[in-house]
Design brief:
The chain has helices at about 55-65, 90-100, 105-110, 125-130, 135-145, 155-165, 165-175, 190-195, 200-210, 240-250, 250-260, 275-280, 285-290, 305-310, and strands at about 225, 235. It is mostly helical and about 325 residues long. The protein has two domains: about 1-85, no CATH class; about 180-320, Alpha Horseshoe (Serine Threonine Protein Phosphatase 5, Tetratricopeptide repeat).
Length: about 325
């Protein structure tokens, strides 16, 4: 196993170049570890190397230099605010976390890695744990120095709702996320985010969390704005959450919104109501019944739909 290597530098040190022979001297550390003493510190705020074998150090430094097209005698330039080189075990653990093994966060930090670490694409550990809905790992990262602001706009509440993470949604709301904050470009709210799929089991629970924190069931999106909520070529239509529930929700989702005060005959940009949306999307009779308003009716005996009506039924004379 390669010896662990940790290298941290501030943005101000980005352009500093150090000659390899002057980079380190070897001293004892736990009998076999080595420490590096820099000849030129520049504006470096922190630089820590933990090495067990100078040959490993030499090989790792040369590989780092080669990866960025530098000679053996130079460390690579730092292009980000904070850059770090890791041993292979640490990088492998980071890859596992990125792929969903967020329980490894505890071991990752215990090994001395930073809580605000990012992957090669600039996505932080905190964001990956939020993506997978691991609130316990997130709490640990925050306790170890990660910044909750790294989650982005509104602390990533819309994404949590979209993915159906009710525990994460509750956690974010408790830390200041706004249940009624619309996206600047589309006007979609967290409630809209829960109603982009017919997979309702977890998202209905998220709806309960949002509504319990006074999410507005009558917020409408902006009209005719491209949205990524459906991962297709879609545009908003000035719709309320009830419009989306009519198209993609189940009876529970619709009832949750109605109980919270959703306007049953709200109009979208085309003047269509949730009942219109349910009709366009071919929803079942029980869904349609929940959305009836004004003069619109469905006969009590209309249970099987048009297909059942078209089949008809035989009428027999009574046998004497």
């Amino acid at each position: 196993m390669d010896a662990p290597v940790f290298f941290m530098a501030s943005a101000e040190a980005a352009s500093l170049r150090l000659d390899f022979p002057a980079v380190f001297t070897i001293t004892g550390f736990f009998g076999v570890a080595r420490s590096l003493v820099f000849q030129k510190f520049g504006n470096f705020q922190q630089c820590i190397f933990e090495l067990r074998n100078p040959r490993v150090c030499d090989a790792l430094l040369r590989r780092s230099c080669q990866a960025v097209g530098r000679e053996r005698g130079n460390l690579f330039r730092m292009s980000r605010r904070t850059a770090r080189c890791y041993s292979m075990p640490a990088m492998a653990m980071l890859d596992q976390i990125v792929e969903g093994q967020t329980d490894l966060v505890f071991e990752y930090l215990a090994a001395g890695n930073a809580a605000d670490m990012k992957d090669a694409d600039g996505v932080s550990l905190l964001q990956w744990c939020a993506y997978y809905g691991d609130v316990s790992a997130m709490k640990h990262l925050l306790a170890e120095g990660a910044a909750i602001a790294a989650l982005g706009e509104n602390l990533g509440l819309d994404a949590a709702c979209f993915h159906g993470h009710w525990r994460l949604s509750q956690f974010l709301i408790e830390r200041g996320a706004d249940v009624n904050r619309p996206l600047e470009d589309t006007g979609e709210t967290p409630l809209h985010a829960t109603l982009c799929t017919s997979d309702r089991l977890q998202r209905n629970v998220v709806m309960r969390v949002l509504l319990a924190h006074r999410a507005n069931p009558n917020c409408a999106t902006k009209a005719n704005m491209e949205t990524g909520a459906f991962m297709r070529d879609c545009r908003t239509k000035g719709e309320t959450p009830l419009h989306r529930a009519a198209a993609f929700g189940d009876e529970e989702a619709i009832q949750l919104l109605l109980d919270a005060g959703a306007t049953i005959d709200a109009k979208d940009m085309n003047g269509e109501t949730p009942l219109s949306w349910a009709s366009w999307y071919g929803r079942s009779v029980p869904i349609l019944r929940k959305l009836l308003y004004g003069p619109h009716r469905i006969r009590a005996d209309y249970g099987g739909g048009m297909a059942a009506n078209l089949v008809g039924k035989p009428v027999f004379d009574k046998l004497s």
